[in-house]
Amino acid sequence: MEKSKGKASNEDIADGEDKYRLFASMAFMIVVIIVGVPMWWKTTEVYRVSLPSVDIMSLSDAPVEVSTKIAIFTFDKTRGALLVKELKEAYSNNDLWRPQFVQISPLEKALKTKTPAGLESILLKQEEIKAGDFIFFEWPKLQEEILLTTDRSALIRSDTSSSRIKQVINLLILQTHRIQQILNENHRQAVKTEAPQTEYDVVISILNPRPDIMDAKWNVRMAVETYIAPFLKEVSQISNYTLTTQWKYELPFEADLKQIRDNSKLGRHYALGENDLPHIITSIEKNLGVGITAKPAINLVVYITPCDIAPVHIYNRQNKQATRQSVDSFISPKWGGIIIANPPAEACYSYNTAQQPVQFYVNTNDVMQIMLYQLQKLLDINVEFNIDGVKTVALEQIAPRRWEYEAYIRRSAVMHITTASNTLQSLIKLLDNISYIVINDDVGDSINDAYKKLLLAKQSLAEGNLLAASDYARTAFVASEHAFFDASLLAQLYFPDEQKYAIYIPLFLPIMVPVITSFTMIRKLLTKLRNAKKEKIA
Amino acid sequence: MDKSLLLLVALGGVTRYYLQNFHWIGERVEVSTPINSFKRVQEGVYLYENGIDPYLGDVVHELPVILVLLVRIFNSISNFVPLLYVLIDLMTATLLYKMAQQFVRSKLTEQKFESSEYAVGTEELQVQATDMNVVPRCVILAYLFNPLSLLSCAGLTSTVFSNFLIALTLYFLVKRHLLPCIVCLALETMRNLYPIVLIAPVILVFTQRSKNTFTSSISILALFASACFAITGFNYALINSWSFLDATLGFIFFYRDLQPNIGLFWYFFTEMFEHFRTMFLITFQMNATVLYLVPLSLKLRKEPLLLATVLIALMSIFRSYPSVGDVSFYLALLPLWRRCWKFMAHNFVVFCFFVVTLSMMPALWQLWIYSGSANANFYFGTTLAFSTGQIFLVTDLLFAHVKRDFCLRNGLKVYVDGKEAKIILE
Amino acid sequence: MELKIKIICFIALLVSPIGAVKEFSEFHEELYIRPTSSGHVNTFFQFTTRWHYGDRENLHNTQLIPRPIAETLLLYDVKELHIGLTQGLWRYETFGYPVVDSAPGAEVRAWFAAENLTSADVDDQWTKLASTFSGILCASLNFIDKTNSVEPKYSFRPTFATGSKVNVPQFVRYATLPREIVCTENLTPWKKLLPCNSKQSFASLLNSGYVHNTNYHSLGMKMRTICESHNTNCILEFTETANMVYDPKLLGANGDFSLRRLFGQGLNGHCALAKSSKIYVNLDDQSYDLTPLPMYNTTSKRGGSTSTFGVYDIQRLDGDKLFNIAWIKSKNNKPSILLTPPPPLYAHRYILGHGQERGQIVTQITNKHYHALPIVFQENIPWFVPSYMHTLKLIVQPSNGVEYQIQPRVMHYIPGVQRVRPYHLELLFEIPAMSTVQISFDFDYIFLKWLEYPPDANHGHYLGSAIITTQLPIGRNYTAIPIDKHLFVDSFNATRSSYFLEIRTESLILSLPTPDFSMPYNVICLACTVVALAFGPIHSVATKRIVIEQKDGQPQSLKGKVLQKLFRRKQNNAGNSTKEVEQHEKLLFGQAAADISIRKN
């Protein structure tokens, strides 16, 4: 009797109790699982922006294609057609080059012209020739088979064969072999030539080893601004160059100079062995002083020979004097060039007689001509060739030949494209292998940017607008380099995976166990409550 | 409040005032942490007076309101500042006393209604009339003469203010004055962050009688939030810069100062790997606040004050800069649960833990910092043991309450077909 | 502020000498040798390059100035730069004042100025500049950043001139790395910045072996620009100094010494590019005889004190054998009386307190002058030394009389933030005549994260030295070069109304308490376990409910318990069906028997 009453009360208490137990354990779950787990994920994840990895890896599938317009003009229409046909055939199944050969139909104005230049201007009116394109036009009274102008054009003789034209195109205009080298780089076959940077310091250092006896007078700034600066301005499509000059004193050649008697005014000159040159460069380089910027430097050194060892001439391995004029010079690719400016004999003669310091006015013209030549070599713009019957018009201005320079632009565009895509691909590979590399927004952006620009560059190469292509390629190259060498990639490379568990377990195992087990409890309770309900209904 | 009590209070006051002569007390790491140390308050006052934004550096972590108040006080009665601390502490004690009285009274009335459900022979588990007198006395004694609270007050820590504010909160809670209760709680929350959990007992108390529990609890929450905002705004108006928020709450949450204290944080985050710091920071702060909040308030929905006690205890164990002052406060609340003591099994163990660790701390500190013959691990060990002891105490109290509740309804001894059965949790 | 006015007037002073000069560049090398009153020998090298480069573009074409220096001007808006790399301590009481003062370790200080230059990009440029020069000098200046740099308000005054009519914003930054150790790899690049190589010229005397055996040596570098009109018609002044103090007794031979003794070799000619290369020998201390005798003597009257110098003009020497000067203790040994009384102002600094909990930094500034002196005192306290300014005390201790406390006239204090910003304190006050002012404040030893300690954690952390600047009314012991001049010889007969003096205190070392670096995993385990300890019980209290179970239901022995557990599990599986049925009854204590019965049958 009394029992039953107690029972009833107990029961409904119990039910209420159960409800709250349910809620309590659920609360625990919410805090631990629904709040805790995402928090853990967020705070310990390695941050990575999503990247177009697949697309980047497939970059190398689409080969580089270059198209250029090559116009041909002959007075005889049929011959021109023939040439175009033959050339078209020659390039028909070439997966790199997509040249478009067009024939400029002869017009009566052309017949009247007296000079090649006049003819050329007419033709240019006729057919639009933009950067990277080229035009061959016939000029009957020509003694060479082909004469390349300094512009985007060449004169051909009436009997010039298509094979010869093809040779010129391949060798000089398109420079197929070098492009092939570059493209081979991803197969690790060809010689490594690194892509041109976007910024260079051109450091012109004048060494005066003996300021006490040589009072060298030279307005370097003026000389540089009249000779080097304009040239660099001409070629600043790909990289821009900052010119700096410096004087360095008491920095002698560390090489043994052999005195050699001769019948000059001084009665002797000094021989600098060819195989000493590397040592000289190393000894000079460490004293030229470092720039404070990260730009790579091109060193152009002018060495003012002191009178006590003047004049110095370079001797080759056969122990023959390499050069005969008063200025000797040599270059070492990528590093720079050295010019030996020997003072005039009479000046040194006066020194030898009366040991007085001599004034030495450096001959700006000589030195600067050579320096310019060296610079062109270092930048690797101008091409040398000897195909019999093919000549080029001599340079009369400082700027390089237009077609040379555009070939250079094309080359470096291709090089930038290949380098950038290689960089991106190896970066992606790295990311796949190492899970701890952080890719923050900045790096992610530059990767995406590089990828987009690469596509654009390829496209515009294929469409044959060269300058746009080179711009895209350059930006892609810069962006990819920046992404690859960013320090933030290595932010948290240090933490080994297995040690993580040693850190998690002490706290999260003991907490998780009761929470998980309480699942079963909840299940029980739920079934029970349901049964209770059923009974109430029954 | 009779004469003997007054005497006790006076005695407590005198002891505190005397102890304040020992300045080394305020320099003990156990007593004064980066948030509550008197030295930093002084610095704050100094900077404020010299027109330098006190929150520019990371030395000051007191609310602008309190700071400005202290500046006024320092200027007017600089010599009596210690006395002020003593007075506030005594007020805390008396408040606790009043609170206890009220609590027991309400318990007694409660029993009248429930007595029918009680099993026979459970008188010793029920609140007796004598408790009217005994419990409050125990409480006030426990606060006045607890060496920890003595130290805390003698060290001029601002924990004195915190205790006072929490005591006020509890007092208004049992007196059922909503608004002042909320305001005190909000103020203390803005100072120390952790008291935010006390909103749970407040809601429980003030929604007991209401028809629609949900809406009323929501409205209370809203009230609390608005109070917090009001206080923040007021502080901003005082120094018109938000820097104080980071200097108080931010400093507490992100645990910027690794100075050792009696808590669990300092060595843990000294030795933590940077990669996991944020995660464990959040984990530990959750552990000190939200983790136990809901389940416990569901379990103890009938005993809001017990809930309050447990929450205060937990937060003074798991807070980032605990000091002995915090410990002393919840110890003073234990006598309220006199009737549960019967079931508290670990009393002796816990007591030993407290005595041993508290006496070890200074010794090992001396060895480590001054004579350099020990190292950090030793001190860490003791703080770890101390926290363990406290955890035992809290869990024990909880178990005791559950058992008492059960036995109250089903008699002290439960018989299963003739044989005595024992009680287990399943 | 009086300082400001001074600056204005002296800028005018600076600009005047330029005029419309055409481009020139000149190089001077000077060596100053002085036996100090304590019997030490102070040798001071100064290499000055002055280049009137005109407009900014011309900085690309350097001649005597090293290229990196010119490029710095192109890259950053820096107008004045001082770098000091110092080993050892300069003792003002006995050595007198140095020509160029610098703090122990590495010290960098720079002024930036340009139109619409903001403090933010100055901070950026400042760190970049520091790392640039850490490359140039092979010193670890790249550790300079916001966490150890301050922006002094009163201590320094600029010595450059932008020459623009509108006043462009100027910013100064200052940082010290007291831990930096100066050694050969700093000396070599330092010498490389000279136009002549170090086989000839005065630099031939600076051989690392001998430089680093001195009691004190300090390599200095100073750069400033003086423009007449904004960014055009400018002069770049680049000065390299080497200041060393030898102890002749260590060199042996009863206090006699010579160039060869000091530097390991005689002087090998002069730099061909130098406009002047002179050695100045201080002759105030009569107790030495010089061989060879100086070419000529000059006397310098400055600020009421007179001193005579012997001069050797190396360019007038002929013959290419190494040149040597010897100081011989004179035979007719008249008692060598102290001719140079201690300098008017010097300072010391130390840490008080024991243990690794609380300490006090104390700086004592002594004024031996018979007038009060205005003092600007600057502290640059690292972020790991939290200081309490309410404990700041300035106590005056008169040489005769009781000590009393004073208040600073101006106080500029920026509290630091851990790991973000150092504490920066500047005090302006007046130090009474013939008395010592003791500046003291408390600090705490703080605890760092275990990875923030240096590899040798117990070696301690360094505090950079404080800087004290003042205006001396007299020129006794004062050898600094006047701001508007650039050569050491310019300090002769350079009488001014007052003499701007900068002195530095000792740098301090502080050993912070260290954690156990081998502990991380253990600590994590232990702390987490304790936290988990609370979770289990509370979880079960909150989610589980009470049931009763028969007391003597199971045997007490462990073995028995285990057996029973197994046994019971089997039973449960067997009697599942019944259990399901009884499920909802389980609670009721009336029916508890049923519960038990399941367990037992």
UniProtKB/TrEMBL annotation, chain A:
It is a multi-pass membrane protein. The keyword Nuclease does not apply. The chain crosses the membrane at residues 20-41, 501-526. Belongs to the PIGS family. Keywords: Endoplasmic reticulum, Glycoprotein, GPI-anchor biosynthesis, Membrane, Transmembrane, Transmembrane helix. This is (Mediterranean fruit fly) hypothetical protein. GO terms for biological process: attachment of GPI anchor to protein; GPI anchor biosynthetic process. The keyword Glycoprotein applies. It is found in: Endoplasmic reticulum membrane. One of its GO terms (cellular component) is GPI-anchor transamidase complex. Pathway: Glycolipid biosynthesis; glycosylphosphatidylinositol-anchor biosynthesis. It holds the Pfam family PIG-S. Its main location: endoplasmic reticulum.
Automatic annotation (TrEMBL), chain B:
Keywords: Endoplasmic reticulum, GPI-anchor biosynthesis, Membrane, Transmembrane, Transmembrane helix. The chain crosses the membrane at residues 77-97, 150-172, 220-239, 276-294, 348-370, 376-399. InterPro entries: PIG-U. It is a multi-pass membrane protein. It comes from the Eukaryota. Pathway: Glycolipid biosynthesis; glycosylphosphatidylinositol-anchor biosynthesis. Belongs to the PIGU family. This is (Mediterranean fruit fly) hypothetical protein. It comes from Ceratitis capitata. The lineage of its organism: Eukaryota, Metazoa, Ecdysozoa, Arthropoda, Hexapoda.
Automatic annotation (TrEMBL), chain C:
One of its GO terms (biological process) is attachment of GPI anchor to protein. GO terms for cellular component: GPI-anchor transamidase complex. InterPro entries: PIG-T. Keywords: Signal. Transmembrane segments: none annotated. Residues 1-20 form the signal peptide. This is GPI transamidase component PIG-T. It comes from Ceratitis capitata (Mediterranean fruit fly). The gene is PIGT.
